[in-house]
Each structure stands twice: as structure tokens, then as C-alpha cells.
């Protein structure tokens, strides 16, 4: 009897913990938009859907500037983040390829993305690169929770935007520049608690 009760209690605790994690993830907000104003650690942003968002940057928030890169800058085993869409034949074609600088936090995965309808994000390590008829075919290996690594082949075309980021500061956050925040939790007043932000430098983050 005691064992059964303990089992039920543990199971209930696990459900509560899972719900708490899911709720926290659901509350994270992804930001794509243009800076309207900056005051100290507060950055007001007009999102791409026209909503005004109040971003509150942590004192030690990481700021990265988005700059141009080239396919030649992509080396074997580089971490890359690729937004893609399927072509008529099912081949994934990259809309944007982001080269991750070494030693930055990196989340390896493949899944649906919200940059545009029917788009995907693939974060992983470059395995191979082979010249294709109409571009360069990259093989990217990514992590799958509880399973062996998987891979995707993604075509890089002439229209693919290739970028990377460089170290920046809060002084680089200025009105009129476009920004991207991968995810920020909401504070009680509805503002967003931002630990990392990317800002337009040579080119804008994907909008």
C-alpha cells in the first residue's frame, strides 16, 4: 500500500514538473522587429506584426552584430543554423545560413520554424559539402533527444543569405536597426527579460 502511494506521489510530481517546464517554454517569446527607442537597459521594439514590445536587457546581456559571410567561410565541423524551405521536388533549399562562431552556446536540432510559412530550422555540425548542379549541397548532422544523431541535406543557392555574428555592445542598439531574440520569458509587467540579442550591423537578422 505504502509503495503504491509513493509511486502515485512521484508520478504526480513528475507531471507537475513537466507541466512547469512546458509552461515556461510556452511563455518564451521570439522577437523579430525594429528598434523604436533605447533607454538604459530598456529597448522598445516594433515587431514584424506591428506589436510594440518592451525588452528589458539583463545587465550582462550578450549582444551580437549580424554581418555578411560567404560559403567559403563554412568549414567542416562548423556549427551552422540553416533556415530552409522545401522545393517542388522535396529538396530543402536554404533561405539563410548562419555560421556560429566557436565557443558560443549552441542548440542542435531540426524542426519547424516561424521565419516564413512552411520553413524549417536545422542547427547542427557541417559534415560534408558537395558541389551541386545549381548550388552547394551541405550535409548537416543534428541531435535528436533519445535517439542517434540524424542528418539533413540542404541546398545552398545563389539566393541564400549567408551570415555570421560578431561581438557587439549595447551601444550598437540604435533606433531603426532590426533585431532578433531567439526567446525571452515574460516578466510580470508583460515586458521581456532578454539575455541575448542580435542586431543589424552589415545585414539584418532574418525577419
Structure write-up:
The chain is mainly β. It is built from 1 helix and 12 strands; from the N terminus they run αββββββββββββ. It has one helix spanning 2-27; strands spanning 29-39, 42-47, 52-68, 79-86, 92-99, 109-113, 119-132, 135-144, 147-156, 161-167, 178-184, 192-200. Strands 1, 2, 3, 4, 5, 6, 7, 8, 9, 10, 11 and 12 form a 12-stranded mixed beta sheet that branches. A hairpin with a 7-residue loop joins strand 11 (178-184) and strand 12 (192-200). The radius of gyration is 20 Å and the shape is globular. It starts with a helix and ends in a 7-residue tail after the last strand.
Q: How would you classify the helix and strand content by structural class?
A: mainly beta
Task: Compute the separation of the termini in Å.
Answer: 57 Å
Low-confidence stretches: 5-26
Order of helices and strands: HEEEEEEEEEEEE
Q: What's the story with the biggest beta sheet?
A: 12 strands, mixed
Overall shape: it is: globular
Number of helices: 1
Mean pLDDT: 88
Oligomeric status of the shown chains? single chain
- Estimate the strand proportion: over 45%
Overall helicity: 10-25%
Number of strands: 12
Amino acid at each position: 500500500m505504502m509503495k503504491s502511494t509513493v509511486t502515485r506521489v512521484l508520478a504526480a510530481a513528475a507531471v507537475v514538473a513537466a507541466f512547469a517546464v512546458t509552461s515556461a517554454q510556452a511563455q518564451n517569446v521570439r522577437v523579430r522587429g525594429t528598434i523604436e527607442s533605447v533607454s538604459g537597459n530598456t529597448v522598445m521594439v516594433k515587431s514584424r506584426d506591428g506589436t510594440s514590445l518592451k525588452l528589458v536587457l539583463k545587465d550582462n546581456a550578450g549582444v551580437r552584430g549580424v554581418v555578411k559571410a560567404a560559403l567559403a567561410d563554412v568549414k567542416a565541423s562548423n556549427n551552422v543554423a540553416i533556415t530552409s524551405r522545401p522545393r517542388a521536388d522535396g529538396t530543402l533549399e536554404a533561405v539563410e545560413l548562419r555560421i556560429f562562431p566557436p565557443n558560443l552556446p549552441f542548440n542542435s536540432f531540426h524542426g519547424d520554424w516561424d521565419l516564413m510559412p512552411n520553413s524549417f530550422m536545422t542547427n547542427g555540425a557541417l559534415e560534408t559539402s558537395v558541389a551541386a548542379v545549381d548550388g552547394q549541397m551541405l550535409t548537416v548532422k543534428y541531435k535528436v533527444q533519445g535517439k542517434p544523431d540524424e542528418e539533413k541535406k540542404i541546398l545552398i543557392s545563389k539566393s541564400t543569405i549567408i551570415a555570421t555574428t560578431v561581438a557587439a555592445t549595447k551601444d550598437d542598439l540604435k533606433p531603426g536597426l532590426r533585431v532578433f531574440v531567439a526567446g525571452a520569458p515574460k516578466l510580470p509587467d508583460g515586458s521581456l527579460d532578454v539575455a541575448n540579442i542580435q542586431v543589424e550591423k552589415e545585414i539584418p537578422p532574418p525577419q
